[in-house]
Amino acid sequence: MRRAAVVLLVVMLLAYGLVYFHRVMTGIMKEEIEGFAEYYKVDPEYLLAFFPSAYFYAYALSQLFMGSLVDTYGVKRVGALMMGLMGLSTALMMLPSPAALMLGRTLVGVSAAVVFVGTQRVASLYFASSSQAIITSLLLMTGNISGLLATYPLRVFLSYYGLAGLLTILAVFAFTIMVLVYLLAWDVGTRKKGLGLREVWGKLGHLSREKHAWATALGAVASYGTGTAFQAAWGQDLMSRAFGYDKFTVSILLMYLALSFVLSAPLVGVLSDRVIGRRKPVLIASNTVSTISWVLIIASLLLRSSPLLLAGLVLLGVSMGLHIVAPPMAKEPYGIDYSATATSFFNLVLFTGIAVLQSTEPFVGPLANSALSLTVSLLGLVLVAAWTRETLRS
């Protein structure tokens, strides 16, 4: 059983790498998105705002049912079904239609929601509580290795093979993961315990009244949320408009952000699970570092200082790495039968926040959006300190 669980976990890690690539690939695609806008005769500002964020709005809204479906019917059925939908949605984006482009991106966001909540359920069912932050750190590290590929390497790939070549590879990968999940997963959900979808879904209502659940999710928005919105959408606009960087330089700077996340996440997982045995101090540190990073980014804009910008990006990546304790904190108080549902509530708040932060920048500009990100970081820091409770020891 242990070996089978590890193999399944590896497959879920690969699935999350695919999901994360979809999430952040638009971060270096300003040129392609503007090309779409010209081809389809639409305002490029609107497409830059809503094409990247369509994934995040869909991802957030699907949390209302995805976690409950996974808890009720299991990773085997729901996971395989959603990965198949992701493959079809990716192929849909290749059709020469603006409606197909937006619908495909939206459905990718819907289907992608299964991976993180499904992995958290697998972790809760088959691994010890002292491994939850380590597993989450491996998950996010895998995602950000994929995120690294979605920076300069993707920029080079698109220059040679175009978007159609990229989407073909992503669709094939999704269908492969679909088959592997169906063959390897054996979790069929809580129905075998007599817990139906209504009972499991009702847990969302309980979570919406929990201060701890809100504060943990908003703490994640303050660090991972602000960083991901920057990485996946509006950071390219800030760096090209304020500093005059070309598309290749932008992709390299975003690679530094992703790399700092990749290097810090596994260390944080071990620190939380095995060294200090606590979650809350790490999440407070995440929000503190995020706040400092946004101060540096704002200063870089005001002073036109490239070193300050680079320092801010590196610290932003570190804050994202520190946040990996938040998903375990979100599910640990509520039991393994509701692990995916609790994770879904966490993601609902987190990815709604990301979508909003992505959508506002084209209309308010990079300086105002940086100030908004700083405000969110400070708010998250206050709420985490005041409302969250320590979950590993409890």
UniProtKB/TrEMBL annotation:
The keyword Ribosomal protein does not apply. Keywords: Cell membrane, Membrane, Transmembrane, Transmembrane helix. InterPro entries: MFS, MFS_Efflux_Transporters, MFS_trans_sf. Pfam families: MFS_1. The chain crosses the membrane at residues 46-66, 78-95, 107-127, 134-154, 160-185, 213-236, 248-270, 282-302, 308-326, 338-357, 363-387. SUPFAM superfamilies: MFS general substrate transporter. It is a multi-pass membrane protein. The keyword Thylakoid does not apply. It is found in: Cell membrane. GO terms for molecular function: transmembrane transporter activity. Its main location: membrane. One of its GO terms (cellular component) is plasma membrane. This is Major facilitator superfamily MFS_1. It comes from Thermogladius calderae (strain DSM 22663 / VKM B-2946 / 1633). The lineage of its organism: Archaea, Thermoproteota, Thermoprotei, Desulfurococcales, Desulfurococcaceae.
